[in-house]
Design a protein that fits this description.
The complex is a heterodimer of chains A (about 120) and B (about 110). Chain A is mainly beta. In chain A, about 0% of the residues lie in helices and about 50% in strands. Chain B is mainly beta and about 110 residues long. Classes of the chains: A mainly beta (about 120), B mainly beta (about 110).
Chain lengths: ~120, ~110
């Protein structure tokens, strides 16, 4: 059983460019959450998708957008990249039927570097 | 605001016991989780406490006091492979709010 997978593993972009990161959830999971983890910090919640809709959003600007597909996979898009967007981007999947505590399984992350 | 505070670093020797504390202040609370993250790796789930008390899973135990907004992770019989960062995280309406993490270094 494949766990959460993310692509690409590493990415280098320049300021002002746009980037798309991809995530496939663990089998049986229907909810995908995205987190940004700066070096030496804890992950920060960006947003969560369920039934192809954004269900919750953290304190991130509109430059960060996402999408969920019918097969539950998800994309994170970041426009007009800034140097401060350099971070590890983590995708976590869970099953909404799990109740208030939906254990989240994390993927290996995408390391984004903005030059 | 929402914040979770942890010590930045803890060191210990193999075979020892270490406790990592976490105090939290959040607008919503369903439970407290602990995650382990090795350098370059993904966070992996260790434990979850929704109610007050101690939860034990092998060498790891986690404690929660909701009235004190406090929890801790207890690691026993430390092994070299336990060297990693440990994060407490509050479940708040299905999203996780993470602390800044505690770096544990285990020495032989």
């Amino acid at each position: 059983d494949a766990g959460v997978t993310q692509s690409p593993t590493h990415l280098i972009k320049t300021r002002g460019q746009q980037v798309t990161l991809r995530c496939s959830p663990k089998s049986g999971h229907d909810t995908v959450s995205w987190y940004q983890q700066a070096l030496g910090q804890g992950p920060q919640f960006i947003f969560q998708y369920y039934e192809e809709e954004e269900r919750q959003r953290g304190n991130f600007p509109d430059r960060f957008s996402g999408h969920q597909f019918p097969n539950y996979s998800s994309e994170l898009n970041v426009n007009a990249l800034l140097l401060g967007d350099s971070a590890l981007y983590l995708c976590a999947s869970s099953a909404i039927a799990g109740g208030p505590h939906n254990e989240q399984f994390f993927g290996p992350g995408t390391r984004l570097t903005v030059l | 605001g929402q914040s979770l505070e942890q010590p930045s670093e803890v060191t210990a020797v193999e075979g020892a016991i270490v406790q990592i504390n976490c105090t939290y202040q959040t607008s919503g609370f369903y439970g407290l989780s602990w995650y382990q993250q090795h350098d370059g790796g993904a966070p992996t789930f260790l434990s979850y406490n929704a109610l007050d008390g101690l939860e034990e899973t092998g060498r790891f135990s986690s404690f929660l006091s909701r009235s004190d907004s406090y929890g801790y992770l207890l690691l026993q019989e430390l092994q070299m492979k336990d060297s990693a960062s440990y994060f407490c995280a509050v479940y708040n309406t299905d999203k996780l709010i993470f602390g800044t993490g505690t770096r544990l270094q285990v020495f032989p």
